[in-house]
Amino acid sequence: GGLEVFMRDDRSPLYRHGIVARIVAEYIARLDKSFACWRNRLGFMDTFRISRADSGYPVFQNLLELENDRQQADARLANIPQAGELREEMADFILRHKEFPEALQKSMAERLYLEDVKSEATFGPFTLAQTAKVSVNPKTMRPYYLVHWATFDGSANLPLIYMVTVEDSSESMVRQLVDDSTGKLNEKV
């Protein structure tokens, strides 16, 4: 789709902001992985709701189910035959019965879904904050941190990415992190 074209284009305005682009790309990859999981989930589940009135994204309940399924993936996978075994059974079923093996197809879709979802690379309800950069503000000579995190807003059904630059004014951190002679980060820390 259009997002993939935009993300692959090195001339995209997004990439003029290197670190921001890398952070956003990471969350978009997680969102893309979630959509891939949901596509497989549609192969064995009867319902899937999308917020048509607000965002056009899946409703928050789908995200919670994805997270719950991630936690139970290993136990559920233990009860589903391996993919190769399912393929053999499907081929055998088609040859013997001359019809499509719907139950086996659902098992295969569930296996693929659970294998994907257990990778933990999906967009969850909340992603803990991470520090992407620590540097020194040359004007104030104080350390600053670029921190990012993400959440899925359950009321608006929207994935949200937050980034903040925090400047630390505590004297002990300034002494510890800033090299007075260079005005840069203390390399020994």
Description of the structure:
The chain is α+β, with helices and mostly antiparallel strands and about 190 residues long. It folds into 2 domains: about 1-115, no CATH class; about 125-185, no CATH class. The chain is built from 6 helices and 5 strands; from the N terminus they run H-H-H-H-H-E-E-E-H-E-E. A 3-stranded antiparallel β-sheet has the order 1-2-3. A hairpin with a 4-residue loop joins strand 4 (about 180) and strand 5. Helix 2 (about 20-40) packs antiparallel against helix 5 and helix 4 runs antiparallel to helix 5. It is elongated. The mean pLDDT is about 90.
Mean pLDDT: 88
Strand arrangement within the widest β-sheet reads 1-2-3
The major β-sheet equals: 3 strands, antiparallel
Quaternary form: single chain
Compressed to H and E, one letter per element, the order equals HHHHHEEEHEE
Gyration radius, to the nearest Å? Answer: 23 Å
Uncertain stretches? none
Number of helices: 6
Percent of sequence in beta strands:
15-25%
Terminus-to-terminus distance = 44 Å
Structural class: alpha+beta
In percent, how helical is the residue content?
40-55%
E-strand count = 5
